[in-house]
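Archive maintenance. Older records in this collection stored only the sequence; we are now back-filling the structure field for every entry so that each record is complete. The fields below show one back-filled record exactly as it appears after the update. Entries are processed alphabetically, and MULE transposase domain-containing protein is next in the queue.

ARCHIVE ENTRY
Title: MULE transposase domain-containing protein
Organism field: Sesamum radiatum
Length field: 253
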Amino acid sequence: MESIEGSYAESFGRMSYYADFVLEKNEGSVVTLQCDVDETEAIHSTPIFKRFFLGLSALRDGFLEGCSPFLGFDGCHLKGPFVGVLLAAIGLDGNNGLFPVAFAVVESECKESWIFFFENLSMLVGGFSVDKPWTFMSDRQKGLVETINEVVPHAINRRCARHIYANFRSQFAGTALKRYFWQAARSYSAVGFNFALYKIKELKPAAYEWLLKIPAEMWSRHAFDPRIKNDHVTNNISESFNHWWGNLEANQF
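Back-filled structure field:
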């Protein structure tokens, strides 16, 4: 099988050649290979793979010309002898289908790796213009929120309602509370949202106070920026991509 599929070590060793090939065949793409080298040695050792970003210009052009400026972000763990994490930025096309925009293989989900990802993503899309209502959906992964606030401070942040509910349920369980939580999240009007919160307050005042601490524009449809024309309240687009990736027989990048 190795003679057919190659080996992990050989594949990582040829990343620089792959980067050059992508730039040659897909002009305008952004490909960044980051390696570690032991600077203390008199003769530098072989570079060790650290991070790799891939943003194809063909995908970028399709996203910018045919999709709204809405992206879901998440990371999934890679299998194999070298492990690591695959970060991805996923958009939605006109049919609400997944539209992958950019990927990166990094050592872990941390602020440094997310900064690496966003700096390259910014180069790919020509900068996150303040004229566009850039909207980012996430599960508030470690380091991601801080990175967005630093690199794209004007971005509109949405929090995945499914993850908010998971935290909500751990403190305030109950069928009625669940029903009114999702009614509040999916409401297209302030009246519907306020009614759902009122019912939650009747059932559990502490649950009501807990939800008030989260800005409505982060998790309820009625408060979303109308310019984006996207009513997603969960980060299922990223979860779906991760599930698809996880089902591949060989998780080789």
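Update note: The CA atoms of residues 169 and 178 lie 8 Å apart. The mean pLDDT is 88.
Entry marked complete.
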